[in-house]
Design goal:
By secondary structure, the chain is of the alpha+beta class. The protein has eight helices and 15 strands. It folds into two domains: 191 residues, 3-Layer(aba) Sandwich (Pathogenesis-related Protein p14a), CATH 3.40.33.10; 88 residues, Immunoglobulin-like (Sandwich). It starts with 34 loop residues before the first strand and ends in a 10-residue tail after the last strand. A hairpin with a 2-residue loop joins strand 2 and strand 3. Helix 1 crosses helix 2. Helix content is 26%, strand content 26%.
């Protein structure tokens, strides 16, 4: 049964909130449709981003600058630095984390677990049968090194728009992660070891103390593939080598740099502080800076792969790509 519903609203003392859930009772009298949250709007004739797409962008924006996310949420950054966050993590947050890459298998895992929690009325990353996130990933064929699940819920009486629900639940999850209030599985949102993600936001109903409530459930599955992964993930920085030492240093990142395959399919864009992440493709790929192109061969020395596993780190100096006169 759902734990953490505010009994104050129902006329009784307040119960503890669920692990990462937030409860909101709204008075918008509109019908609520259970099941998957879908977006049918269009932008310039194309489908608008789904709620999962929006949340994915939010996660990566927060990873690129955790301190900025803390500021958006109204958290005291000085308190975080002095009393909450360790020196090692402060250094990581000052530099910014790598963005995560979306994975369709992890999307499916998140959706299935969301629906299972709604259908069977439990809230845990472990199923009633004892299946952990790692177990479920292995059964789905994901090459697991590490898997961690973050989840939250929002219950209400009448209607809340999915974008509001997703934003409110994510705010709660972000606050807990920034305050280092992590689940037993460990930190996930702000952990550089987590390189892929799957996301699902679903709606349903829950029965609690004689009343039915509408609810949204959000599941986010973070993961790192193992050495047996059939693909490589690559992350790093695009940087301007201002001190001419040949390596990336904090403060040298260049944002907005596009990486394409040879067919002009976009693979990645460097974010704030120059960080990028991509799933390597078979064949050559291209970095585009100021309309200048440079081909990067997809081959990586197998000896390096064995040492680094399924995730490799590569920084690229923007000056190596700049050329006068454009293409």
């Amino acid at each position: 049964m759902l734990k953490g519903l505010s009994k104050k609203v129902l006329g009784s003392p307040l119960l503890p909130s669920i692990i990462t859930g937030i409860i909101c009772f709204c008075m918008w009298i509109m019908p609520f449709m259970a099941g998957a949250v879908e977006t049918v709007e269009t932008v310039n004739g194309s489908p608008a981003p789904t709620q999962e797409d929006v949340l994915f962008q939010r996660i990566n924006q927060a990873r690129l600058d955790p301190w900025a996310e803390a500021g958006r949420l109204g958290l005291d950054q000085n308190h975080l630095r002095q009393s909450v966050v360790s020196a090692e993590i402060i250094q990581q947050w000052d530099s910014g984390l790598y963005p995560v890459v979306r994975n369709s298998v992890l999307d499916d895992l998140a959706a299935a677990h969301c629906q299972d929690m709604i259908n069977r009325r439990y809230y845990s990353d472990v199923t009633p049968e004892g299946l952990t996130p790692v177990d479920r990933a292995l059964y789905a064929g994901y090459p697991v090194m590490d898997v961690r699940e973050v989840y939250g819920a929002m219950a209400f009486q009448f209607f809340v728009r999915p974008e509001q629900a997703g934003r409110n639940i994510m705010d709660s999850l972000m606050r807990k992660a920034l305050m280092q209030e992590v689940s037993p599985g460990g930190q996930a949102i702000f952990d550089n070891d987590m390189v892929e993600v799957g996301i699902s936001l679903k709606g349903g109903m829950v029965y609690f103390q004689g009343l039915w409530y509408n609810q949204y459930v959000l599941c986010i599955v973070f993961a790192r593939p193992g050495d047996e992964s059939p693909y490589l993930l690559q992350h790093g920085h695009i940087f301007d080598d201002m001190n001419h030492n040949g390596t990336y240093d904090p403060g040298e990142g260049v944002a907005g740099i596009e990486i394409y395959d040879i067919y002009r399919n976009l693979l990645a864009v460097s974010g704030e502080k120059g960080a990028y992440s991509l799933r390597q493709i078979h064949g050559p790929w291209i970095v585009v800076i100021c309309n200048c192109w440079r081909k990067q061969v997809n081959g990586v020395d197998p000896r390096i792969v064995l040492e680094e596993g399924a995730v490799v780190e590569r920084d690229y100096c923007a000056r190596d790509f700049w050329c006068p006169g454009g293409n």
